[in-house]
Amino acid sequence: MTRAPLLDLDLFEPVYTGAEGAWTDDTLDWIAYASHESSVAFAGTLADRLRATWTDLDDRGWVPWWDQPAK
């Protein structure tokens, strides 16, 4: 069974203040989380869709600070 999305992505404007932030919809089928440590995580149906659409998913994963290129 496929459900229509309850969130119009054109209207979705999350605000991140630098503190912990979490976004979801009324169904709680998905969540997006941003930490104060510069990481973003997705869970539920949102994570499933990202895995299915992002072909370069391995390039988008977390990299320890010691393995990141110099700025």
3D structure, described in words:
It is a single chain. Helix content is 13%, strand content 18%. By secondary structure, the chain is an alpha+beta fold.
Low-confidence stretches: none
Strand tally, please? 3
Measured by DSSP, the beta-strand proportion falls in 15-25%
For the record, give the distance between the C-alpha atoms at the N and C termini, rounded to a whole number: 47 Å
| Gyration radius over CA | 14 Å
Q: What is the succession of H and E elements? A: EEEH
Binned, the helix content reads 10-25%
The strands making up the biggest β-sheet line up spatially as 1-2-3
Class inferred from helices and paired strands: alpha+beta
Q: Give the overall shape, derived from the CA principal axes.
A: globular
- Helical run tally: 1
What quaternary form is this?
A: single chain
Query: Main beta sheet: strand number and arrangement?
Result: 3 strands, antiparallel
Mean pLDDT: 79
